[in-house]
């Protein structure tokens, strides 16, 4: 499998741009001798991929596990689709099990690249490799009609509504960010609930030293506000004054997302804007190599010492940063003392999500 670009007839304008612009960009980045650009461990966002494509730096994604001895699928210049992990490596077999009506299922792998098992952990090995030798990755994926693999999420992050329908949150969250340019982070909640709600944060400036989110909106967010006729410059102005122009635009974006829902269970019914964006410093985001969950220590109006626990084991990636808050709407509401949904606009993200712990469960006070 060749990773280098094929020689093909290209427009004259491309060769001019390559000589005058693209080659200089690569040289300034120290990449003038690179023939292939690959990314792994965490998925790239569409905006990141498109940015590098605009510089004639197509970044292919590799998908694989330590248990699969590295790559299972890979993108090349000849086999490239944005947001996909390319095609399955020759000699490897791929199967999607328990597919839903959209063709999304668990990615399973088979071949000589699959490991023999975990050392002295037979039980874990039997849970990972079935009797036919298929490695169950725990990742959700789909394949298009040309054989490109797209990873869409993790099995354990699937929300199961009160009606028993499985909902993958990542595609919905990504669509919300796409439809509403002012949104920085979106987190869908609604596990065992009758409907879905979503927590939203706005794009804002960050501290140059600590990286912590500031109250001032980013230039992109300010331009978005001005395009609507709003004069807001800070997150606080929008949230506490419930800026009608911004809130109406967000509602229109949510409505647009709901139009693409494949079932009623996947529609967003309620939403809330948080006053502070998620960050590593705030404890809402974690780095790829860290696997921690959440200790919710909110102060509801009245609470007992009883706790409810849920396992949060599988972080989700967004350009190497993983968002790992609990997705139980009931626990979030009990922790914050509020009910999610408009017009709830004064909830602090720290009041809802609490601080990170190294335990694999989060505790949430039970409301009396």
Give me a quick take on this structure.
Helices cover 24% and strands 29% of the residues. The protein is an alpha+beta fold and 368 residues long.
Report on this model:
The protein is globular. It is α+β, with helices and mostly antiparallel strands. The chain has two domains: 14-157, ANL, N-terminal domain (Rossmann fold, 3-Layer(aba) Sandwich); 159-313, ANL, C-terminal domain (GMP Synthetase, Chain A, domain 3). The longest helix has 17 residues, at 12-28. It is built from nine helices and 22 strands. A hairpin with a 7-residue loop joins strand 5 and strand 6. Helix 4 (169-179) packs across helix 7. The model is unreliable at 287-368 (pLDDT under 50).
Count up the helices.
9
Report mean pLDDT, rounded to a whole number: 76
Quickly give the CATH architecture of the largest domain.
Answer: 2-Layer Sandwich
**Approximately how much helix is present in the residues?**
10-25%
> For this structure, what is the CATH class of the largest domain?
Alpha Beta
Q: Count up the domains.
A: 2
Uncertain ranges: 287-368
Query: What integer value in Å does the Rg equal?
Result: 22 Å
Strand content: 25-35%
Query: How many strand segments?
Result: 22
Report the sheet with the most strands, covering strand number, pairing sense and barrel closure. 4 strands, mixed
Assign an overall shape.
globular
Strand order of the largest sheet: 1-2-3-4
Question: What is the name of the CATH topology of the largest domain?
Answer: GMP Synthetase, Chain A, domain 3
Q: In whole angstroms, how far apart are the ends?
A: 62 Å
